[in-house]
Amino acid sequence: MDMQSLRTTGLVAQHGSFAAAARVLHVDPSSVSRAVAALEAELGIRIFQRSTRTLSMTEEGEAYLSQVLPLLDEMDHARERAMAFSNGPSGTLKMTTSVAFAHECIVPHLKGFMELYPNIAVELAPTDANLDLNANNIDLAIRLAPAPSGDLISTRLMRTRYLVCASPDYLAKAEPLSTPEDLAHHPCLRFALPAFRTQWRFRQGDNDPIEVPVSGKLIIGNAQALRRAASMGLGPTLLADWLIRGAIERGELVEVFPDWDCTATEFETAAWALYPSRVYLPRKVRSMIDFLRKVL
Questions:
Q1: How does the average pLDDT of the chain come out, rounded?
Q2: How far is CA 120 from CA 92, 141, 277, in A?
Q3: Is 182 exposed, middle or buried (0-12, 13-18, 19+ CB in 10 A)?
Q4: Average pLDDT for 226-231
Q5: N or C terminus: which one in the chain shows less Cβ crowding within 10 Å?
Q6: Alpha helices in 205-268 (DSSP H)
Q7: Is residue 83 classed exposed, middle or buried when 0-12, 13-18 and 19+ CB atoms within 10 A define those classes?
Q8: CA angle, corner 134, sides to 152 and 43, nearest 5?
Q9: Contact 285, 153 (CB under 8 A)
Q10: Do the Cβ atoms of 98 and 193 come closer than 8 Å?
């Protein structure tokens, strides 16, 4: 039996179309159709019911793939485990994270990772959209949020905090920013997410949190651009500590309320490594998670 045809057929079943499977494999849809037809001919059954608009699995096709595809996964895992004994972790690791986190926290460490694991190729997809890991054939996602929910497995890489910051030039010329309530009199630079646009939350010690309404004429959908606007003196903004740490150290930005916890959503947030719920975690994924927990 042609294992590649079986893998291709499994992708069609997973993604629901020949075209989607072809995009994952970077091949022409006609070659996917031929692979499925060859497998059907060899088995003597019809795996998919085709029409001009829809593709659905037949009862016999579903019964067959439900038993065979898990075995195929186990074969892949066994092969990887065997190769790891002699060559170390290997394969292509497909991962995704936000654009800003990729630039600030992932890309600077890739050289060290690839020197440590020369047999792992990394395919990084920076995007601010939460991609579906299964639909996009992604091994690992790094997401910034409170404790994640859903059917993905998660591991905390590092705790994150949010800070209100502004440029020294802005603070020297603007009205005083002594307490969070003073933000109501300032043109705040706001991130283009619903929770960040209207109010920011503050907490000091064990006291109850307060919510401060914020407004301003500039709303930006990229965190790095928001940092740049703040450093140019356009107003105070709320950004993650990992994004502005360097700017604060260089004197480009100043933390405005160092005695307060700040957030737009939850006070306890983190960078999380998320991966599909699988019995076996590939060593290439485990290697990246362990590496990032160490360097971050």
A1: 89
A2: 6, 17, 21
A3: middle
A4: 97
A5: N
A6: 223-231, 241-249
A7: middle
A8: 130
A9: no
A10: no
Indicate the range of 68-72, 108-112, 172-176, 247-251 predicted with least confidence. 68-72
Which of 245, 229, 247 lies closest to 237 in space, CA to CA? 229
Residue pair 18/12 in contact (Cβ under 8 Å)? The answer is yes
| pLDDT value for 279 | 55
Rounded Cα–Cα distance for residues 128 and 195 (Å): 15
Name the nearest CA neighbour of 137 among 34, 63, 58, 26.
26
**Structure tokens that stand for 78 in this block:** 């066994």
Closest alpha carbon to 170 in 257, 254, 263, 261 = 254
pLDDT in tens, 84-127: 555 678 899 999 999 999 999 999 999 999 999 999 999 999 99
pTM of the full structure: 0.71
For 279, left (φ over 0), alpha (ψ -120 to 50), or beta?
A: alpha
The tokens for 165 are 């910051």
